[in-house]
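Comment thread on ticket #2218

A.B. wrote:
> Attaching the input chain for the structure job we discussed in standup.
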Amino acid sequence: MCQPILVAYTTRYGSTEEVAQVIAATLRDAGFVAEALPATSVQSLEHYDAVILGTALYMGFLHHDAKEFLRHHHDALQHRPVAFFALGPIYAEDKDWIGAKDQARKELAKFPWFIPVAQEIFGGKFDPGKLGFPFKFVPPLRNMPASDVRDWDAIHAWVNQHVLPAFQEAHIYA
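C.D. wrote:
> Ran it. Output below, let me know if you need it in another format.
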């Protein structure tokens, strides 16, 4: 029996956690053992054969906890396949998707050793009612309409068509 796949996530408002839970459920539906945990609660990767790290892009930057996860687990992440996803655009406009991909690329370039076997940007969710400090005091943000452009079919497809084959190619799950 294989060790589980970890879906580690960072989240500020819960949207990335929801995606991580769906990814873990998709892995379980495919017959694998998988668990989704906040990245900050992961002390060791020794009990995992593979990792999926999920985060969001906030104002063009990876969540602080995602960067800390990469730093803290630097050595362990180099010895197992890792996939990466980020939630980015909160509206379905092409320019936002291009910008999110560029932002993610720049942020991940700060970790040149980190080479995911599968990587994707998904649409995000925005709820002005959940804004925290200091953002709740920025009138343009408070006045933006709520949105949710997460594409659940695309998330399932990414896991099944990209992540699992990459993990299998790495001889983790033959």
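A.B. wrote:
> Thanks. Noting for the ticket: Residues 152-169 form the longest helix (18 residues).
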